[in-house]
């Protein structure tokens, strides 16, 4: 899997953030059989930037933690195109990562891993609009996070 990580502002660039994102995306690629020609793009930003995207694309006038933009939404899952399978874009607010890590009492890395897999699952077609869908998506998120050792405080591997 090819993973491109960009930053809204270069001053926040971190190899630690990139390592978490690459680990989660690579694990998802393995688990979901995405193949080596699959590409995903991740943008790390601040609340102000994700707020503007949330307002523009979802008509929700506040910052959010993660947004996903699938490039193949509504298309058949049978891929028959060029060598690269472009999945889409994930946008993550680093400020929300920190806020939610503090709120839930776990590490910044665990929250970043969670938001990465959450965004990736949206790209792959998962959603949480119904209780059943939410339960299925949560199960998939926790499966990937547990495989990588990103468990909540007090949880066993």
Verbal overview:
With 157 residues, this protein is of the alpha/beta class. It has one domain (2-147): Collagenase (Catalytic Domain). Helices cover 46% and strands 18% of the residues. It has helices at residues 15-31, 47-58, 94-104, 108-123, 131-147; strands at residues 2-7, 38-45, 66-70, 85-93. The chain has a four-stranded mixed β-sheet with strand order 1-2-4-3, with helices on both faces. The protein is globular and about 35 Å long. The two termini are 26 Å apart. One of its GO terms (molecular function) is metalloendopeptidase activity. Pfam families: YbeY (PF02130). Belongs to the endoribonuclease YbeY family.
Q: Give start-end ranges of low-pLDDT stretches.
A: none
- Strand tally: 4
Gross geometry: globular
Q: Strands of the largest sheet, in order across it?
A: 1-2-4-3
In short:
With 157 residues, the protein is an alpha/beta fold. The protein has helices at residues 15-31, 47-58, 94-104, 108-123, 131-147; strands at residues 2-7, 38-45, 66-70, 85-93.
Structure keywords:
4 strands; alpha/beta; globular; 157 residues; Collagenase (Catalytic Domain); four-stranded mixed sheet
